[in-house]
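ping. complex inputs:
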Amino acid sequence: MYELLWLVPALPCAGFLILALFGDRLPRRAAPFIGAGSVGFSALVSFLIAYRFFTAPPEGEHFSQVLWTWMNVEGFTCQFSLYLDALSLVMCLVVTGVGFLIHVYSAEYMIDDESYAKFFAYMNLFVAAMLMLVLGENMVLLYLGWEGVGLCSFLLIGFWYKNPANGRAAMKAFLTTRIGDTFMAIGLFLLFVQLGTLDIQEMMQRASQQWAVGSGVAVAAALLILGGAVGKSGQLPLQVWLPDAMAGPTPVSALIHAATMVTAGVYLIARTHVIFELAPSAQFLVAVVGAATLLLAGFAALAQRDIKRVLAYSTISQIGYMFLAMGVGAYAAGIFHLVTHAFFKALLFMASGAVIVALHHEQDMFKMGGLRKKLPVVFWTFLIGSMSLASLPIISSGFYSKDLILWSAFASEKGSKALWFAGFAGAFVTGIYTFRMVIMTFFGEEKTHVHVKPGWVMCLPLVILAICSTFGGLMEIPSSIYHFPLFTHFMESALPAAPIPHEGLEHAELMLQVIAVIAVLCGLSIAVVAFGVKPQIARAVVATPFGAKMRDLLFAGWGFDWLYDKILIQPFLRTARFNKDDFVDLIWNGIAALSRGVHSLLSETETGHVRWYAATLSVGALLALAIVVLL
Amino acid sequence: MTLLDLVALLPLIILTAAATGIVLLMAVCRCHRTTALFSMAGLGLAVISLPFANSMAPNRAVTPLLMLDTYSFFYMGVMFVSSFVIAALAYAYFEKQDGRREEFYVLLLTATLGAAFLSASSHFVSLFMGLETLSISLYAMVAYTRDRRDSVEAAFKYLVLAAASAAFMVFGMALVYAEAGTMEFAKIAAARGALEQGNHLVLLAGCAMMVVGIGFKLALVPFHLWTPDVYEGAPAPVTAFVATVSKGGMFALLLRYFVLIDVHQYPSLMFLFTAIAVLSMFFGNLLALLQDNIKRILAYSSIANLGYVMIAFLASGHMAVPAGALYIAAYFITTLGAMGVISVMSTKERDADSFADYRGLFWRAPWIAAVFTAMLLSLAGIPLTAGFIGKFYVLAAGEESSRWIGIAALVVSSSIGLYYYLRIVLTMCESAEDEAPVSRPSWTEATVLTGLAAALLFVGVYPGPLIHAAETLVASIL
Amino acid sequence: MEYFFLLLFTGLAAVLVGAGLLTSYLVAPHRPNPLKNSPYECGEPTIGQSWVQFNVGYYLFGLLFLVFDVEAAFLYPWAVVFRQVGLTGLIEMGLFLLVLIVGLVYAWRKGALEWV
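pong. complex structure:
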């Protein structure tokens, strides 16, 4: 069974190739079947492998498959090999499973688009690249997947490239993540030079043997990797691309936010957790970045008008929770939240996409309302997703995962009360902005006429994901309710358990849960009151000068774009303008001019006259003789 | 002459029989398709017979003239497959032309035979026989489209200059013979050891003269001036042959001869070769820079590429032979692909060798443009193509024996070279509303191009088998 | 150093030959007339231009003749050692002739033997 592992990335890749090469010639109806089918089969293989992994785990709880050796020169080997352990298995299931549902949904969502086949080709490539990233055994493959994901995000965000704004958003995403990628590439070079191997597991092993805890090189490597993770996952300070990435079609947003792309950073940290363990200061920074991001993004989500931007900020915020978990050493908790988040965020995006289509591409929540009756399926599934996002207790999967993170942040040796409080406050804000969104969209009076209703192809993935969002959390039930740590237990073979001292905290867990639940419910009630029952409250707050300023600040996502524009882009452009024909260019122009000059000089030798050719032949022979005889 | 000798000679015998057979066939019936198929069948059979001969009669010296070892069989295999591809391209190419087309395949087979002879020769006599068989067939091949002025002009230039260079070569052989008293490579090597220190000079002078002849065939600076003219004038399939098979045979010989006489003993010869390699890389790439004829660009690019592969020759380590073989194989695939595209694009009147022919090709014929782009990227050595693997191994071989000058020249000059490859790609991306649509390639052409592109990517992504095959050569040559 | 004499010898030879030519050019009387300037052709007066165009058929016949001339030249030594080389020699010569015959058949079918 494990030998089929190569099929998991190969199938979407094959789908991409078929669609890219023959997309124009195939009948239009074939595109979704190939696009969704390849990912679907890939998901099927993943599930079969997962079943096998549960029933008969491979030796050492991991399996590696060498497909072929790309090059092997004097001790430097680079292989095409896949590595499967609990972590990559979970990632595979999420990427293919959720990815498949998104593909199915796209089949209807994109049906009127002229580049139907191209869309599925890009989506397939996206999934394939992500699978390469999570399954690659060595850093080269991981980096290949990493860059592939970056490329596909660029292509898909700018999919409707005829609108220049979309092109700009794609460019912004690409350039911003590129900053992180550069850090990451330097980090990989550093690791390779210091540890002399590309194999990730080998690398981790050597790192733990050769480096002392807190040594400079470990901190440097961890910080560089963190740079890469921050870029891809849209965390502070590189989060600015993510809200703009909403320019792409909604299934793309779902794919970027739920199944691929943004989770890559979290995966990377989990994969290289050994290095972060060796660099406690860097790991603490991970937690701080996560905590800061989840708060800032949560508040920014409060003031958005565009339903997709609310979801984008909520993603940044939720990824912040995952980073927080990574930072306090609760890797399994972070990955658990990644899984549940994939369920409910994909659900929310696709449901919002259904709304947007129904309202004729209207994304402004202020123009929505009262859709509860018109779009019942969408409403209920969206509600379930929102409950999960806000982590309403017991009945939502988000509750279980977020609870685990909060508890780890509080109780873990690396955690602290401040980190817990940040997460707690974030949960409160999440409650507000989530239900603000629900109320503004589905309750109140109808403001825009419903244009079309989603068909069953779009509704089916919503229902499936709604079920997952409700019950997916039961994989891991906290001990305060009923001790059932299935997920963390499963992950233990790949990721160390969070170091939580058990003495004297038996009752704290339950207490913290109750506090958190109360906070969420408070947030929910505030939202209901301020935006549903008495909307004049919200209006009154905004009407005050401070409130208005605050709203504008939050609406602009804390003004990071403005800030970066002022301190980075403008000075850069000014320097560039000032230095338009600078001396560095002179060198390159000089080389080009030199090459041209030599070219025209040499061209003179090509006279076309045989006598001249024969003469050079003789002169060449004389020179050869002279060299050999005289030297 | 025993039966095993005949088995070892089988590939060469098959080729000879096929060439003779075609002559007879033409006497009986003139049919372009049958002739082409016959020649391709002959080449195919010869390829199939190679592993058979290699396993039945391994590393066998047949008379003092020929050394039929794994090394020569590898090069023969590469060359036969190339000739096979060229025969297919030529069939499609000459289908567009009028006149007598069948004789071409006789010439193709005899030229291939000459090149195969070169790769197996272990004696000056067989060297010269191979060289002349190859050259004389080539003169006629270059002039095959004889109603084109350029073609005839190129053939005459090639004839005069090749004859001159062959004269140098024979003179060099005479000098070597005068000093060593034998014409067998292996015995020259043995005699060399017995010479006193001072007496090496005549031997070296002889080698230097031979370098003229070899350098001419390989189009290395300063014996390169004929290349662009001949490439431009010859019909596209012949250009492909000049660029690949004729150079492959000569390179195999060069490596065998100079490795046997242990060229690394002589710093002056090494200096000569290094100078030739470095100059070839720079001259080739710089000359191609602003060139506006695609065939000439490929001519200059081949000068540079042979300069690269000279680094493998210069490297003395055990990676030299496999690196050279790998590079040659990768270069063959790439050059055949690029020339194949030109051949496919050519019309009855002229070969498609100007930039205008390729403007906006991506919109007019995306498949052909994609194949051409892949080939150009491979020539430039971009990863995941065969060219990258070849270049990488050449660099590794050079690094192993610290040929830093050559490596530096390779890196610098190939980055210059990127410019003109990308220039062609850029031209193909331009919008072309006023250009005529490209006529659909025949299925022969489509198969050949697809096959070459697939081979290019296969070697680039999964080079294991080829590398393994190349590495087995080391044992057989020494 | 021992090659120095070779160099000297080469130089000497060039000087000697050049000196001879130069001397004859300087010493010889120059009294040209049309008869002296006309090309020498076996003592006969020349007929017409030297740039006449030959029928291309001459070349074909010339080539064919050359091939079979060489064949005959090969056959003589073979006949001399016929007993020593035995059956192998017979087969080899047979193959050689076969190839030439194929060539002849080709030339015949192509019409190279017809005079036009």
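Chain B is about 80% helix and 0% strand.
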